[in-house]
Amino acid sequence: xxxxxxxxxxxxxxxxxxxxxxxxxxxxxxxxxxxxxxxxxxxxxxxxxxxxxxxxxxxxxxxxxxxxxxxxxxxxxxxxxxxxxxxxxxxxxxxxxxxxxxxxxxxxxxxxxxxxxxxxxxxxxxxxxxxxxxxxxxxxxxxxxxxxxxxxxxxxxxxxxxxxxxxxxxxxxxxxxxxxxxxxxxxxxxxxxxxxxxxxxxxxxxxxxxxxxxxxxxxxxxxxxxxxxxxxxxxxxxxxxxxxxxxxxxxxxxxxxxxxxxxxxxxxxxxxxxxxxxxxxxxxxxxxxxxxxxxxxxxxxxxxxxxxxxxxxxxxxxxxxxxxxxxxxxxxxxxxxxxxxxxxxxxxxxxxxxxxxxxxxxxxxxxxxxxxxxxxxxxxxxx
Length: 383
Ligand SMILES: [Zn+2]
Hints:
By secondary structure, the protein is of the alpha/beta class. It has helices at about 1-10, 15-25, 60-70, 100-110, 125-130, 165-180, 225-235, 245-270, 310-325, 345-355, 370-380; strands at about 45-50, 75-80, 115-120, 185-190, 275-280, 300, 330-335, 360-365. The chain has a single domain (about 1-125, about 150-210, about 255-380), classed as Glycosidases (TIM Barrel, Alpha-Beta Barrel).
C-alpha cells in the first residue's frame, strides 16, 4: 500500500513501471466513452495530456479515446514510449514490450492529435544494463549506488549524467525514438537527479523529515563526478563545508543535467525535425534541474499542488515564475494532477494556469480523467 501510494503520488517523473505494469496487466480503470466526444468540430486545442500505453485497449477503444480528447480541446498526447526498462515502440536499443507508438500514430493523426514520445530518461531498471554497467549508476553521499540502494522506492535507480557510456546510451535511445515517422516530438521525463528533498506534502507519508539535504538522498558522488568537478573548478569535495564549494558543487550538478539536454539529446531530436519538451519540477533545485536554461520547445512543470500543500493560487504563482524564467521562445504548459482536482474544480485550474501566463495545461493523466472531468474540461477549454 505504501509503495503504491508513493508511485501514484510522486510527482517525480510521474508514473512509471508500476503504472506500465498495471496497464499491461489489466484494462481496468480505463473505460473509454461509448459516446462521441463533445464538440468534435472544435479546432485544435492548446492543451496536452499524458497517457500510458494501455496495452490491453483495442484499436476501436483508442480511436474513441483520441477523438474524445480532441473534441474536448486536447491538441497533443504524451504517450509512454520508454519506462526506463522497456520500449513501447520498435526500439533498436531498449527491449521492446509492444510497438504501441507505431500502432497509435495513424489513429492520432486521423483524430487530429499530435503525439509526443514520453520517455523516462535517467532511471534505468533494465536488468541487462544493471548487470553489464553497474558503474553507470549514481552514488549518494554515503557512497551507496542507486543500483543497490535506491532512494525512496525500488525503481529509483538513476544513471549518472556524467558517464560517457550513459550519455551514449541515452543519445541512442533518443535518436532511435526521434526517427519514428510521424512523431511530433520527444518528451523527456525524469531528466534530473533523485529528489534530495521530497515535496513537503509527501514527506509525512513516508515518515521522512527533510529539513535539509541529507547524504543518503544526495547524488552523485561517483568517482567520475568527483574528478570532473575537480577538473572544472579546481575545488575538491573534501572542502564541501565551505559555502563557495557547496555553491560550485550545486552549479556543477545543474550543469551536468543541462549539458545532457542541450549538448547530447537536443541535437539528436532537432536534426530529425522533432520538437523537444520536458516534464520538470517547480522546485527545480531539489532535483538539480535548471530547466530555464534548456534549449527545448516547451516545458511542462508538474504543478501538482496537493504535493506541496498548496491551492490553485500556487499554480498561478509557479506558472508565472516559470514563465518569467524562460526565454520567450519556450512554451510553458502547466502540468495538472487530475486526482487532486474534483471535476468541478477543473475550470478553476485551467483559469489558474492561464492567469500565470501558460499556453495551456497538460493533464496527468488520461486514466484519471472521469466522464465528469472530461465534461468540465471541455466546457472550460472552449471558454
Ligand atoms: Zn556520477
